[in-house]
What we know:
Strand content: 35-45%
Helix content: under 10%
Structural class: mainly beta
Distance between the termini: 45 Å
Largest sheet: 7 strands, mixed
Low-confidence stretches: 1-14, 122-139
Number of strands: 14
Radius of gyration: 16 Å
Oligomer: single chain
Number of helices: 1
Shape: globular
Amino acid sequence: MKKILKHSFEAVSLLTTNNGMLDVTIVPASNQPDWLIPSSLILSVDDYDKRTSLYEWQQQDVVVFHLLPESETPDKMIVLEGNTSSHRLALQTAGELQQLQARIAEVKDIELPESFNDTKIADNSEAMIPLDENVVLSYLFQAVMIENTVYLVPDLDNIAYQLIDLDS
């Protein structure tokens, strides 16, 4: 009998499935498509209305990725599980989260629509990541369409590792 090899990829970046369905949470984002996050990765959703780059969650500092420009006031902090406790990530946003369950076949990979090419994905401290094909690395985000709505699926592992490197 063959030995089962453990996958070498980062598990957090996967959308988890249940019987061919995706259980995701839609996280509102400003000036860009809303984000799709696997619901099972959400550790907490807290009311938090101050902009910050580190968030203390259960006596641990968690790096923060902003889904709003500095001019907008956030109202919640979403803490996401990482590959290790030090690679947990928080998303700061405003608005209501929505739950979505979709069939895998309904999710279509697409190119990011032109209307988003000149916008900013996020402002994390002083690092701006524009939605420009010459600057943004395609492995950070994938645009998808579900029921004629465009969403971004982020590579949470990669974002967490980059933010932790910036913070160090």
